[in-house]
């Protein structure tokens, strides 16, 4: 049944997509934790390739892909599409802010509390910026209002999650510990997302706003997985190349 003008729209969630959004966040977090340990060389100089990989893993897969896959799980009684420009800008913002936060927390290969705190604040606020940009990219027959208290709670969750993730990224060495850390981080990112979505009230309007370029449809979740898959392949290519270079260097020193 078509919703009435002025009606409060009640969302429903696709449980399978909620689970998949968590799994993709876990995968991105694990890749980021693996790459972050090699961001700085032994002399303290920055390895740009690994830095970009870590930023793309955390921001592009762990946060952005999780967000838009979870948005596909968010169902209203009106069709939803997305502003392509805002969607693209949110991806760039998530990767750029994640990279800067990882750089600050890494401290040229020496973990420092001041850099960690600054990076945590930046990463947490950056996750909020990306999340709410993604929400405002929604194009539908509804106006959105946000509950300030719930938005604040989501920001606190994001900052605390970022602080935990950055500390773990530069202080854990064993793979099993990193897997556990990625599971916790994905839970925190997902919690921030769903708390943020809970802050939104959608009131039905006559028409959706006109925008020049939009994306949507039944294949958006497939598109998100395609983006995450391409990023993952690029990251594996860089990591494999670094590993081969290190093995060649070790063989030459023997």
TrEMBL record:
Classification via InterPro entries: MHYT_dom (IPR005330)
GO CC term (a single one): membrane
The keyword Transmembrane helix is annotated on this UniProt entry: yes
Annotated ranges, domain MHYT: 13-203
Stretches of the chain forming a coiled coil according to its record: none
Transmembrane domains' residue ranges: 15-33, 45-64, 84-104, 116-137, 149-168, 175-195, 222-240
Protein name: Bacterial signaling N terminal repeat family protein
Keywords: Membrane, Transmembrane, Transmembrane helix
Record Pfam families: MHYT
């Amino acid at each position: 049944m078509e919703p009435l003008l002025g009606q409060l729209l009640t969302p429903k969630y696709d449980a399978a997509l909620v689970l998949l959004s968590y799994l993709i966040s876990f995968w991105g977090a694990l890749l980021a934790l693996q790459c972050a340990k090699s961001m700085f060389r032994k002399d303290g100089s920055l390895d740009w390739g690994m830095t970009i990989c870590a930023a793309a893993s955390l921001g592009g897969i762990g946060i952005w892909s999780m967000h838009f896959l979870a948005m596909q799980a968010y169902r209203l009684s009106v069709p939803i599409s997305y502003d392509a420009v805002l969607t693209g800008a949110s991806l760039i913002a998530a990767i750029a802010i994640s990279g800067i936060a990882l750089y600050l927390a890494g401290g040229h290969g020496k973990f420092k509390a001041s850099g960690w705190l600054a990076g945590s604040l930046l990463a947490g606020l950056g996750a909020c910026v990306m999340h709410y940009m993604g929400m405002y990219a929604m194009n539908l027959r509804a106006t959105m209002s946000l509950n300030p208290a719930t938005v604040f709670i989501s920001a606190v969750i994001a900052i605390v999650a970022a602080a935990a993730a950055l500390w773990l990224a530069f202080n854990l060495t064993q793979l099993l510990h990193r897997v556990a850390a990625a599971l916790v981080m994905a839970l925190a990112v997902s919690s921030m997302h769903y708390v943020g979505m809970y802050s939104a009230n959608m009131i039905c309007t006559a028409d959706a706003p006109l925008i020049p370029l939009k994306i949507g449809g039944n294949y958006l979740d497939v598109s998100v997985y395609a983006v995450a898959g391409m990023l993952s392949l690029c990251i594996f290519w860089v990591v494999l190349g670094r590993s081969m270079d290190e093995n060649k260097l070790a063989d030459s020193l023997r």
